[in-house]
Amino acid sequence: MSHSPIPSGQAPVHVVQLTDAHLFADPAGTLLGLNTRDSLRHVVSQVRREQPRIDLLLCTGDLSQDASVASYAAFRELTDGFAVPTRWLPGNHDEARVMARVAPDLVHAVTDIGAWRVVMLNSAVLGATHGLLEQDQLSTLDNALASVGERHCLVCCHHQPVDIGCAWIAPIGLRNADELLQRLRAYPQVKALLWGHIHQEWDEVRDGIRLLATPSTCIQFAARSEDFKVSEEQPGYRWLRLHADGRLETGVERARDFVVTLDFNSPGY
Fold first, then answer.
1. How many domains in the chain?
2. Domain that holds residue 171
């Protein structure tokens, strides 16, 4: 477990989420013609302009497209300038062992900060696109929840645990979502579940738990699409304010100065 500095008094914990950067070892690497390092750079600049205070940076998977040491080093270099406690978890394009080798100090399952506990779960399945929380991850969650005490809890993973209305992405979500959601419902301290993977915004409340997903820092998937379809919306990030009384405020911002130009004749996602 890692403990981060506690914001003073009753000040909320200021959190930023970055997700699905899909960086390559090659700085010129692109998805559908979009340079993923360039788009991440623009999102990071947007965060700097809009978020003067950040207490915790959460990076929720698919930080890399090719799971290379160079891609993780680039992601770390592009985000180190925030100089704040940072947590990484892997997505389906990541390799957890490589990620941990590049940033062993950033891979922590449980972080207590202010009045909150943040739990980072690894839902990636080696060699697969869908997600699954293996028994070790469920045990980590069980232990974190059993010892949460009076703290409020934010749980994070990569894969979506609910149907988001995109038929093509449903089979590559979290296969044992019911096991996860059943555990979360048993603890009123759990206020929100946060993920990436779907390259679009999602925000709903079920059983008193806020369910949140965030746009990618590169290409976006079109909402409510039956088949694979991308959107020309700008890349973005999510900010969260975790209040000492358990309230959560959040929103998505996009890199408005980034021009999205997609090449549908280039290699696909």
1. 1
2. 12-254
